Amino acid sequence: MGVEAFRGRVAIVTGASRGIGREIALGLARAGARVSLAARDETALARVAREVADLGSTAIVVRTDVTDAADCRRLVEASVEAFGRVDLLVANAGVSMLAAFEEVEDPEVLARVMDVNWMGSVRCAHAALPHLVAAGGRIAAVASLTGLAGVPGRSGYAASKHAMRGFFDSLRIELAPRGVSVTVAYPGFVETGIRERALGRGSGRGAAPAVGRVMAADECARRILEAAAERRRETRMTWRGALAPWLRLVAPGLVDRMAAKAVGWPP
Fold first, then answer.
1. Number of domains present in the structure of the chain
2. Distance separating alpha carbons of residues 19 and 58, to the nearest angstrom
3. Which residue, of 145, 164, 221, 226, has the fewest CB within 10 Å?
4. What's the whole-number mean pLDDT along residues 219-232?
5. Per annotation, catalytic residue among 6, 118, 157, 167
6. What integer is the mean pLDDT of 156-164?
């Protein structure tokens, strides 16, 4: 059926002001969905809302800090008030971290990464859940290949994405009898600018992927939406992501070396 499954539906997209979230919002608009745009940057969200309108759809802007449970509840309430329902939650809001752990001056930076990436998606899912159950809806959680294997220089980020994987895999099983599907996306390197806004930056070791390995944000968004529309349990977007689970069974050291090489580690 493809993304046309979202025609006439209502979607909440967190982290919608730029990058993958923006492209997901525009993809939903093209498919005929109405969209609630959530992020902290209202000015950027307003630009995305205008782009949605130019595509012939409707969006509302809801300034949301996903580390604040009250904000997450207000986001869902505003969506229901504006559109009457919620059919899709895209848990995309996130922050990166780039530093060797030994270079981290304050380990609380890892708590911040966990609070945004993992608990932010948990808070939004909790707030939206009754409406998703009522609609027989969908959740799409944007994780990362670092949710499948450790990556040097990204220990806090990898931990948060591993947590997302465990939470949403568990939630999938819980919600299957209620008709709600949960799709977890595992992008590799995507051109979003998230690395430039990363927390806990150290010397920059492992801060950038090798040239030619970066996916465009619109391509990443398209794959996520297609997987969610088809109610797939997950989508892995690189050959590394597809092979890693099998390689870890027979050659776990090779997986570690592949992760290190992908970020140029050691520098």
1. 1
2. 20
3. 226
4. 97
5. 157
6. 96
